[in-house]
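Progress note, sequence design subtask.
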């Protein structure tokens, strides 16, 4: 089946669109020690080229330069020599290049940048640099972009940045970040696909990603691997996150519900079923699903309650989709869903505190638990509103750190009909990034803590990240910003 899945994936390989950006700049004369910064005007992903010529006298030795590609202005003056993160510093977008002869030069690697900083390390003669060009690449076609009916000017700005974020992450697959990782993750796939349905509506790339994961390795429990590589060859990843495995089933259900492509759903049904059954078969003595979940980049977060909510949320969407398609086993899944929701209330909810605080999560109080219990249908109506809003407003609760978890928080608010609160949440998080100059939305955003990084150093953070693009989805689907 692996070869069949890979064949289907390649049949849906998207076309890469190229847009050439040529900054209107006069030739720049640079000597040793000189620095020059190019502003592309907004964030792009692609390839940089330029012309180097001699200024007055022919160069008698190679010119040596550092070319740095910066997603945000802060990176222009960052000192990379003191990088302390635990991810490889090779992700930092900086190259030392030697130019032997005058001529046209196209740098071979792909970069994500708004700003390009050129510093001359050594030049025995003055260098003339000109003909700067950046070939931006994306599988998103701006001609197909569905416009948003927005009145609120702040939401119009948020939408523009969200669309640019999605566009720059849409390559041969839905990349998680075009600067760093550049691979396909299930968590990012799910959110990118939702935003894509309401913007560019390229269902082929979603289909391709689903088939690539179908071709990837499953572990001994039947879980789907959380990420994969597909260029220059397909290679399955080796990290199994229990919540991401479940979200593959959500992504397949979303795809069917949007496209009506029954053939693809039935083709991939057994893969998604494996993810759900794996969670069902890996329960602890209390009947709660157990596993290594992601949930959020949040230090010391206790995740069991939130993961239970992811499971129930997935099971609910799975049942709805199976009912539409007439699968007989839906009744068995419905019974599991009903029983497990009751079990979650009994084991995870503290009636006295009116919150999802429990011994299983070491009595930790978090927004994450409240959000996923709402999305999982464990609590509903006015009771759910009170629980969620209390968690959001409490000074004692652990708050989300990533736009990934912020997405599901907004989703829970909208599910409960709290539209004003959802709009304000989007203003606080995504609007906050716009206020500090974001051209694309960041991997991590904690208001008031600009240097927060789960990797030990802000410089390695991705400033254009797939899971941050979903305001474009919320705005179009629910008419926010009107």
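Output:
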């Amino acid at each position: 089946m692996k070869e069949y899945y890979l064949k289907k994936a390649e049949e849906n390989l998207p076309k890469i669109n190229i847009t050439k950006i040529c900054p209107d700049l006069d030739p720049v004369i640079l000597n040793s020690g000189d620095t020059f910064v190019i502003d592309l005007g907004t964030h792009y992903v692609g390839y940089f080229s330029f012309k180097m010529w001699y200024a007055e006298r022919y160069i008698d030795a190679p010119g040596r330069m550092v070319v740095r590609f910066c997603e945000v202005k802060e990176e222009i003056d960052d000192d990379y020599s003191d990088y302390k993160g635990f991810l490889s510093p090779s992700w930092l977008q900086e190259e030392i290049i030697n130019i032997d002869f005058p001529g046209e030069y196209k740098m071979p690697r792909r970069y994500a940048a708004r700003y390009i900083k050129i510093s001359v390390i050594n030049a025995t003669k003055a260098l003339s640099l000109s003909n700067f060009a950046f070939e931006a690449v994306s599988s998103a076609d701006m001609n197909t972009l569905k416009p948003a009916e927005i009145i609120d000017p702040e939401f119009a700005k948020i939408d523009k940045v969200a669309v640019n974020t999605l566009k720059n992450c849409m390559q041969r697959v839905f990349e998680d970040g075009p600067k760093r990782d550049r691979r396909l993750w299930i968590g990012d796939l799910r959110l990118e696909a939702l935003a894509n349905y309401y913007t560019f509506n390229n269902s082929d790339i979603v289909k391709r990603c689903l088939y690539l994961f179908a071709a990837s390795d499953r572990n001994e429990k039947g879980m789907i691997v959380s990420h994969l590589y597909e260029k220059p060859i397909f290679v399955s990843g080796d990290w199994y996150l229990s919540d991401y495995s479940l979200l593959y089933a959500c992504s397949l259900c979303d795809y069917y519900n949007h496209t009506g492509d029954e053939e693809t759903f039935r083709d991939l049904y057994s893969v998604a079923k494996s993810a759900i059954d794996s969670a069902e078969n890996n329960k602890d003595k209390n009947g709660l699903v157990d596993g290594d979940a992601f949930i959020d980049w949040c230090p010391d977060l206790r995740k069991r309650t939130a993961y239970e909510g992811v499971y129930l949320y997935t099971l609910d969407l799975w049942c709805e989709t199976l009912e539409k398609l007439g699968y007989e086993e839906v009744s068995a899944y419905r019974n599991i869903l009903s029983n497990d929701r009751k079990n979650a209330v009994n084991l995870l909810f503290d009636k006295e505190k009116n919150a999802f605080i429990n011994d299983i999560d070491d009595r930790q109080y978090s927004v994450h638990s409240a959000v996923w219990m709402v999305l999982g249908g464990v609590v509903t109506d006015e009771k759910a509103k009170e629980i969620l809003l209390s968690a959001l407003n409490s000074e004692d609760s652990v708050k989300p750190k990533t736009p990934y978890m912020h997405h599901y928080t907004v989703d829970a608010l909208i599910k409960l009909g709290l539209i004003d609160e959802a709009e304000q949440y989007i203003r606080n998080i995504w609007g906050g990034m716009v206020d500090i100059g974001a051209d694309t939305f960041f991997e991590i955003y904690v208001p008031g803590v600009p240097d927060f990084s789960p990797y030990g150093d802000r410089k390695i953070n991705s400033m254009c990240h797939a899971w941050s693009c979903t305001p474009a989805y919320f705005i179009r689907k629910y008419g926010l910003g009107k």
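The two ends are 48 Å apart (CA to CA). Work on this subtask will continue into the next period as scheduled.
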